[in-house]
Amino acid sequence: MDGITNPVKDAVQIMSIHQSKGLEFPVVVMGSVVNGRLPSSPHMEPFEIPYHLRASGLPEVEDPHLVDERKLFYVAATRARDLLIIGTSDTKNESGEGHSIFLKEMLGKNQIEDSTQSYIENAESKQHSNAAMARHSFSDLSYFLECPMRYKYAVVYNLHIPWREAMGFGDNVHRVMEALHNQALQGRVPTVEEIPGIVAEKWINRNFIRPDEEKELIGAAIKQIHRYLINHGRALFSVIGAETPFSFDLEGHTVLGKIDLMKRHSGDSIELVDFKTSKMPVPGKDIRKENIDLQLDIYTLGAEKALHLKVANTATHFLGDGNLVMNAWSPGRRAQALMKLTGILNCIDEGRYNPNFSYCAYCLEFRAICPHWTADKPEMG
Fold first, then answer.
1. Which of 38, 308, 327, 381: disulfide with 285, CB 3.0–4.6 Å?
2. Residues 112-118: what's their mean pLDDT?
3. What pLDDT, on a 0 to 100 scale, did the predictor assign at position 163?
4. Domain limits for position 76
5. Cis omega before residue 39 (within 30°)?
6. What does the mean pLDDT of the chain come to?
7. Per the domain annotation, does 15 fall within a domain?
8. What's the rounded Cα separation, in Å, for the pair 70 and 88?
9. Lowest mean pLDDT among 84-88, 185-189, 258-262
10. How many structural domains are present in the chain?
């Protein structure tokens, strides 16, 4: 629909306390936790009826407004999973501002009065450089794996890439899969009869697609998810996380991504799962395999380094043909993944974007402007 935009992924969310109800974030910042704002000043009616003259009688609590504000403060403070940052002020003015009474209730009067800049210094990053760490999502790094020149055009130069419907299909299927897995997390696996309804609810229309084309895509999505649910529905009761974000530091870079699915494996270990709407690549003939392998490796490193989880296996579901590829996670594989990822980050640091000629046959977006692309590049099998 016109006028509706999707929220930017991995962006800072700015919202009211009411909007945050039921949500959780790794870090929450509460600003202006001062008297007069939280709690807010009560709005008095110009001709307020005394309580002893009201049919409802006296309130159950002495100050209902303060009770409601205290509930709001509790909601805001408990949205934080790992870190809660509270902004306040010791300056008092005509509005009665100053440290919120809720802070004194939570932390104690003495700790509030003794707060100094030293508390902030203890929480500040100790990096010696003022330069921001470079951030790399797997979506960005996948361009480099395909061809470093593609990374240069898409990420460094930030050139607009025309929308490819294959990507839109994958996004829609992933939204439906996330809905299925979130229901499984709540102890209920949807039935195959519910799939068309869930697909219809989660599907985002693309204005430039003809109705018959979109109908065909929706049918393909239902077919893929139906097969997945028939073959793997029982295993969904072991789900422990869906679309789980992570970020970790490596060699002065921040690597981030989002894990499609995590399942209990054995003991305290987990299985990490990624979904592809394509068919399984042919070994030795499809250049996507290296891309897929590194994606799983990065996600597994994220599960270990950022989420502190023990990974036993990784699995790739190719929803296009129903194939499942599983591999054990091992110290040797971890070392190879770190070496590969570090090598890519070093090339990016040094601006080395050597073309990968084997990708020329697949490159549609930049072939017209890339000086390395020529029509006589061999087709890949």
1. 381
2. 51
3. 54
4. 25-123
5. yes
6. 81
7. no
8. 16
9. 84-88
10. 2
